[in-house]
Design a protein that fits this description.
Layout lengths: L8 E4 L3 H13 L4 E5 L3 H12 L10 E4 L10 E4 L11 H21 L5 E4 L4 H12 L6 E3 L3 H14 L7 E2 L2 E2 L7 E2 L5 E2 L2 E2 L6 H22 L4 H15 L4 E10 L5 E12 L2 E5 L6 H20 L9
Parallel strand pairs: 1-2, 1-4, 2-3, 4-5, 5-6
Antiparallel strand pairs: 7-10, 8-9, 10-11, 12-13, 13-14
Length: about 325
């Protein structure tokens, strides 16, 4: 990572997730330069104006502007929230093929600018698209990061905080694996300030909480059409960890190369995040059941990767 790049962030895609992320960045004073890029130029320019009008109340100065892929040249972080949404009657696999093709174009345009920073990917299916970004960009694996299970883990910690009537920041626990239906909670290491949680809950209650986490997105989408505030906060947290060189552990999408016995797959795992991106993956001690569920999640992702492998054949 080139430490001379400063803390400029370029956001590609200003839909509900992207614009919420931009709002979170401004509110938290995470960067002093934000460039918005979107095919819908009119909408993106409207976001720039709307955000700029709130700067007088922001915690720090910030330059917000509309731009193009050329602006990625000197960016420290490029965050991609662009992509197609799933339509009625469209399969998940249809969406995968469509968004991989979109990403091939987006990532190609970004790399042509001379970009040499860190990619942060939010578009779904995020694990597959993080893998695709790594392939298309040619960047080292540590500089391509997916949002992974940062949101799923936040939901997990929130629900446990309600269960035990304590602050969610005092609850420590991870959802790992696919950001999707095959994800798994690591109950064996979940704790509240060092006190194990698993033994205090029945198997039935643990399954209920796991199901609530897994199905939260479906419930929110049914209620309001999309989820965006929670993931925007998660993306902002990852961005802050990168720009401020925090060396903090967050459950992001990272490339496995032998960790927990798996390789060549992007998925949500706890990792140390700093100015270079993913410094290292933290291998959790999993019980036998968790190891089995993780293997199933890996296979789920690899099955999808195999179906889109033709799009990578000419790469690497």
């Amino acid at each position: 990572m080139n430490f001379t790049l400063g803390n400029k962030v370029v956001l590609v895609g200003t839909g509900a997730v992207g614009s919420s992320y931009a709002y979170a960045l401004m509110n938290q004073g995470i960067t002093d330069e934000l460039v918005l890029v979107d095919l819908n130029e009119k909408k993106a320019k409207g976001d720039v104006m709307d955000l700029a009008h709130g700067l007088v109340y922001a915690p720090s100065a910030m330059n917000i502007q509309f731009g193009s892929y050329e602006d990625c040249k000197d960016a420290a972080v490029v965050v991609i929230c662009a992509g197609a949404a799933q339509k009625p009657g469209e399969t998940r696999l249809d969406l995968v093929h469509k968004n991989v093709s979109i990403f091939e174009s987006i990532v190609g345009n970004i790399m042509e600018s001379g970009f040499n920073g860190i990619f942060l990917i939010a578009t779904n299916p995020v694990d597959i698209l993080s893998y695709a970004t790594w392939k298309f960009s040619g960047l080292p694996k540590e500089r391509v990061i997916g949002s992974g299970t940062v949101l799923d883990s936040a939901r997990f910690r929130y629900l446990l905080s309600k269960e035990f009537d304590t602050a969610p920041t005092s609850v420590h626990g991870y959802i790992i694996g696919e950001h999707g239906d095959s994800q798994l909670p690591v109950w064996s290491s979940a704790n509240i300030s060092g006190t194990p949680i698993a033994s205090q809950l029945s198997e039935e209650r643990k399954e209920e909480i796991s199901s609530q986490v897994r199905n939260a997105a479906y419930q929110i989408i049914d209620s309001k059409g999309a989820t965006y505030y929670g993931i925007a906060m998660g993306l902002a947290r990852i961005t802050r960890a990168i720009l401020r060189n925090e060396h903090v552990i967050l459950p992001v999408g990272a490339l496995l190369e032998g960790e927990n016995g798996h390789s060549d797959v992007y998925m949500g795992v706890p990792a140390v995040i700093n100015r270079s991106g993913v410094k290292k993956i933290v291998e959790l001690s999993l019980d036998d059941s968790e190891k089995e569920k993780l293997a199933q999640s890996v296979q789920t992702l690899k099955d999808v990767q195999a179906l889109i492998s033709k799009q990578f054949n000419q790469l690497r």
